[in-house]
Amino acid sequence: MMLDPVRGRPWAFLRKDLQVATSYRLAFVLQLFGIALTLALFYFLARLIDTTMNPYLDRYGGDYFSFVLIGVAVSNYLSTGLNAFASRIRDEQVLGTLEAILSTPTRFSTYLLSSAIWNFLWASFTIVIYLVFGVLFFDLKMVNPNLPVALLFLSLTVIAFSSLGILAASFILVMKRGNPVNWVFTSLSRLLGGVYFPVSVLPVWLQKAAFLLPLTYSLEGMRMALLTGVALADLKKELLALVVFTAAALFFGILSARFAIRRARRDGTLGQY
Q: What confidence category does residue 1 fall into, taking pLDDT thresholds of 50, 70 and 90?
């Protein structure tokens, strides 16, 4: 039976990216080694600062290493979502293949989403590696983890960050260089979103700014679900905020992508960079 050409395109993109990734075996090993080094860094750092951070970490089980491991692992989705689409478009522009791809019957949305499948699969794989290494070698403490709730928050996180990534890719199509979406959300999210320390450590006015970032709600939900096993009913506020942000980001991401592709085709600048 022949594969439907439209449905087969995502698989074709994934197969190509997988072949490229597996052809660089040393890079794969070095990435795993990098994860282990990151875990070791925060493990020994946690032994130093646990006693001073405990008042802020009580709601997360009181263990800084477990707290920061979730933050670092989930923040990988932030980088993946914001960079996957824009970097692929940039690469295709440099190679001179973007205009050729978009001149085929392949829809821009199909191309954009298919080109990022591998990136998100790899980000998911690294989260699993972080958790497995953390449990096996670094005493990661999870008390009755609520996996369904954690997966729900993770799914919304992927959609939210992907939508922001589509918005970032739209800037690349139109502006060619300079990406304010990446700069704002990457910098502010890592500083204010609670990746390395609880949001409650921040001054009140910065805490208010943190509540404008999707990563804040994503990490809160993931940590509470994995580290303390709370039920979904206890995370209604975080879930609602993340759903609202995800819906808004998806709407503006799709809108911006349609505008950017029409603008680039009209100006004949799809292949320019």
A: very low
Upper half-sphere CA count for residue 215 (Cβ side, 13 Å): 34
Question: Do 201 and 56 form a contact (C-beta atoms < 8 A)?
Answer: yes
CA atoms of 185 and 193, how far apart (whole Å): 10
At a CB cut-off of 8 Å and minimum separation 6, what does 45 contact?
64, 68
Rg for the chain, CA atoms, rounded: 20
Quote the CA–CA distance of 230 and 232 in Å, as a whole number. 7
- Helical ranges in 58-146 per DSSP H: 64-95, 98-102, 108-115, 117-137
Token pair 């989403």 is found at 113
Average pLDDT, the chain: 78
pLDDT of residue 240 exceeding 90: yes
Question: CA separation (Å) from 161 to 29, 126, 262?
Answer: 27, 17, 23
pLDDT tens digit sequence for 21-47: 666 677 777 888 888 888 888 888 888
Helix (H) / strand (E) element for 205: namely helix 204-210
Instruction: Name the residue among 202, 167, 193 with its Cα closest to residue 181.
Output: 167
pTM above 0.90, yes or no: no
∠ at Cα 100 (95, 104), nearest 5°?
145
C-alpha dihedral (149, 183, 124, 163), degrees to nearest 10: 70
Read off the DSSP letter of residue 232.
G
Q: What letter does residue 273 receive in the DSSP assignment?
A: -
Instruction: Please give the structure tokens belonging to residue 1.
Output: 């039976």
Residues 64, 46: contact at Cβ < 8 Å? yes
pLDDT tens per residue across span 165-197: 888 777 777 666 656 667 777 778 888 888 888
